[in-house]
Amino acid sequence: MKRNSRWPGFYKLSVADRRKVAAEALGMNVEELVAAVGDGGLACDKADKIIENVLGTFSLPFAVALNVQVNGEDFIAPMVVEEPSVVAAASNAARMVREGGGFSAEADEPIMIAQVQLDDVHDLPRACHRVRQHASELIALGNSAVPGLVRRGGGVRSIEARDLGEGMLVVHLHVDCRDAMGANLVNTVAEAVADRIQELSGGRTGLRILSNLCDRRKVRVKCRVPSRALASEEFDGSEVRDGIVRASRFAERDPYRATTHNKGLMNGLDAVVIATGNDWRAVESGAHAYAARSGKYSPLCVWRKEGEDLVGELEIPLSLGTVGGPSRVHDGARMGLRVVDASSATELAMVAAAVGMASNLAALRALATEGIQRGHMALHARSVAIAAGAIGADVERVAHRIHGMGDVTLDAARRALSEIGKLSNSAPPPGE
Q1: Is beta strand 104-107 parallel, antiparallel or unpaired with respect to 218-225?
Q2: pTM for the whole thing?
Q3: Rounded to whole angstroms, how far apart are CA atoms 297 and 300?
Q4: Which of 327, 99, 339 has its CA nearest to residue 225?
Q5: pLDDT (mean) for 356-380
Q6: Do 123 and 183 reside in the same domain of the chain?
Q7: What CA–CA distance (Å, rounded) separates 353 from 182?
Q8: Structure confidence by residue, pLDDT tens digits, 227-245
Q9: pLDDT score, position 267
Q10: % of the chain surpassing 90 pLDDT
């Protein structure tokens, strides 16, 4: 049965009620959901087997972005993030995009690059020629090291040799990783062919490792937003649209702005990457390297006016997996993959990129209207209230009071909590 990612009023429910609604919509038991993410999804004894020097675990909120429609299909996007307003903003922006037909996305084949570096190559043109001459041999040698991947339809697809000058040669093996992120597979391939490449080149083998600049594994996402969907209580939709376009132009001209522009995009994208047990550091490094590929750091997502509509385009290298990695041992990561229910790693990448694009749209819309702080601080006020010691219903009371005063600080929250406590203590008993 097709999923529907429109869950009106979901944010108004209690955590317990949200779990019931989500479990029913996702076709699972509430108990399964709670067991997987109720306490962070990772027991300490498992954590101790994953990394070194473990003392405990560190939890972050596990949430879902709603309204996400990619290529005509609805997706519930799992998000793990600590920053207030990110989930709400992405969901709200995705709803606006739905009014224009949702996100359309396409992706390259899941090709990762294995690098074999060589030093002290005395005749670089001849070495490059010999590597190319023996490409078939090297491809077969690489594939022999990853028979499981070959059985699944993946494997080494092609080879290139690059002269880096001063006696340094690097050979790239392009490996189709299928539904794996591919780091371990690609490193295995690099190790398997290194000795033979050394023989062919006459050089000395150096590094043998993947590249996280996976520019052969890009995702492209587009969307169209009708101006009316962008309107707020104070701003006409066309005003908001034009403000977003101006903000995009600013990012295209200034790397200082482009950095923050891209951070807004990564707010949403990284949250999906983390929730599905993928390597967000690899994603970040590849994305920012790609943003600087021209020699100038630029925005990954740009926005234009087309007719009366706002049109956005995103292109980003993205290496995600739905098999292997933390999903084998982390209950939360497994649940994240189950929630999104992507048919492949490529589809997961398209959903994650779409959520990133929604986050970028939400940030620019806020900047083009009331500014980024109003909505952000309204949600941040809850965290401040909790830090001041508020519990239960007092969290919302304190948050509402300090946000209304425009003083979202710990001192203000403590004063508000004290005042609320005095009012509660002075109230007459029920029935009097």
Answers
A1: antiparallel
A2: 0.89
A3: 9
A4: 99
A5: 80
A6: yes
A7: 19
A8: 999 998 889 999 999 999 9
A9: 98
A10: 84
- Nearby residues of 130 by Cβ (< 8 Å), 6 or more positions away: 200, 201
Bridge partners of 171, per DSSP, are 116, 161
pLDDT tens for each residue of 151-189 = 999 999 999 999 999 999 999 999 999 999 999 999 999
Is 115 strand, coil or helix? strand
**CA atoms of 333 and 29, how far apart (whole Å):** 17
First vs last Cα of the chain: how many Å apart?
A: 55
**What is the residue whose two structure tokens read 């675990």?**
57
Q: Name the phi and psi angles at 141, rounded to 5.
A: -65, -45
Q: Whole-angstrom Cα distance, residue 22 to residue 1?
A: 15
Residues 88 and 54 in one domain: yes
Q: Which amino acid is at 241?
A: R
By CB neighbour count within 10 A (0-12 exposed, 13-18 middle, 19+ buried), where does 400 fall? middle
Its sign, for the CA torsion 62, 68, 70, 74, is: positive
Are 357 and 330 in a shared domain?
A: yes
Which residue numbers are catalytic? 83, 263, 279, 376
**Is pLDDT at 426 greater than 90 in this prediction?**
no
- Alpha helical stretches, state H, 254-371: 255-275, 280-291, 331-340, 345-368
> Which residue range is the domain that position 305 belongs to?
10-106+217-370
pLDDT of residue 432: 45
Residue 152 lies in a domain: yes
DSSP summary character for residue 345: H
- Does one domain contain both 192 and 238? no
The bridge status of strand 218-225 relative to strand 301-306 is: unpaired
Among 82-86, 284-288, 415-419, the range of highest mean pLDDT: 284-288
How many angstroms separate the CA atoms of 221 and 354, rounded? 7
**Closest by CA position to 382, among listed 423, 351, 410, 342:** 410
pLDDT band at 427 (very low <50, low <70, confident <90, very high): low
